[in-house]
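User: Can you recover a sequence for this backbone? Please restate the input before giving your answer.

Assistant: Of course. Working from this structure:
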């Protein structure tokens, strides 16, 4: 067996695996709406954490939470 055959076989196997897995597509919304959603989520995170809450940490946590909400899982097999 030549040295490149195993590498090509591995690349093909990885490509097939990637095609079979769902991919995530970000739902597009206006930036103003996204920021409003983040601000509201940060408010509720701060409220839950109480008076010792750090506004920057709350905002970052809210951004992560909203980003997850805006990610839509699509199957790459369905062509979308």
């Amino acid at each position: 067996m030549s040295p490149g055959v195993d590498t090509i076989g591995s690349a093909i196997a990885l490509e097939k695996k990637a095609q079979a897995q769902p991919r995530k597509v970000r739902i597009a919304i206006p930036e103003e709406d996204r920021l409003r959603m983040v601000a509201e989520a940060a408010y509720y995170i701060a409220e839950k954490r109480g008076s010792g809450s750090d506004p920057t940490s709350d905002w970052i946590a809210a951004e992560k939470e909203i980003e997850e909400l805006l990610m839509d899982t699509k199957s790459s097999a369905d062509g979308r």
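That completes the design. The first helix runs from residue 3 to 20.
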